[in-house]
Automatic annotation (TrEMBL):
Gene3D superfamilies from the UniProt entry: Gamma-glutamyl cyclotransferase-like
Residue ranges constituting the Gamma-glutamylcyclotransferase AIG2-like domain according to the UniProt record: 11-140
Record-given protein name: Gamma-glutamylcyclotransferase AIG2-like domain-containing protein
InterPro entries: AIG2-like_dom, GGCT-like, GGCT-like_sf
Length: 143
């Protein structure tokens, strides 16, 4: 497993930040060094109001997305902007998402530690009870 500096982990994106989706160019264009297909295991995907939620479910599924490595000079600002986009504030009980470090797997089988925005516990509980799961685990196939 490749473990980058924990303060500057790459990002695993699985929804509106993926190539061709609404937020990709707004947030990532000109700020990333690499972008490659990857998968998050032990999670399932739920449809949200125009964006998806990853819900951690060990052994239950796999989510498709991209592993994005920011340019070093853009990292701090990008991290702050992505936290705002995902309405994530460390320790805030009103968060829709939590930013967590998880291993994601590249297509060559290499595991990489990355930041992933997953549904906050209260949101995850609501989704498990009455959410619409995206069975493929791929936001791009939801249509």
């Amino acid at each position: 497993m490749t473990t980058p500096d924990p303060s500057e982990l790459p990002f695993f994106v699985y929804g509106t930040l993926r190539p061709g989706e609404a937020n990709h160019d707004l947030f990532l264009r000109g700020r990333i060094r690499t972008e490659a297909p990857a998968r998050l295991q032990g999670a399932v995907l739920y449809d949200g109001p125009g964006y998806p939620y990853a819900v951690e479910e060990p052994g239950a599924g796999t989510i498709s997305g991209e592993l994005v490595t920011a340019l070093p000079e853009a990292y701090g600002r990008l991290l702050g902007e992505l936290d705002r986009l995902e309405e994530y504030v460390p320790g805030d009980p009103r968060n829709l998402y939590e930013r967590v470090a998880r291993d994601v797997v590249r297509t060559d089988g290499t595991a990489v530690r990355a930041w992933v925005y997953v549904a906050a516990p209260p949101v995850a509980a609501r989704l498990r009870a009455r959410g619409r799961r995206i069975e493929s685990g791929d936001w791009l196939t939801r249509r």
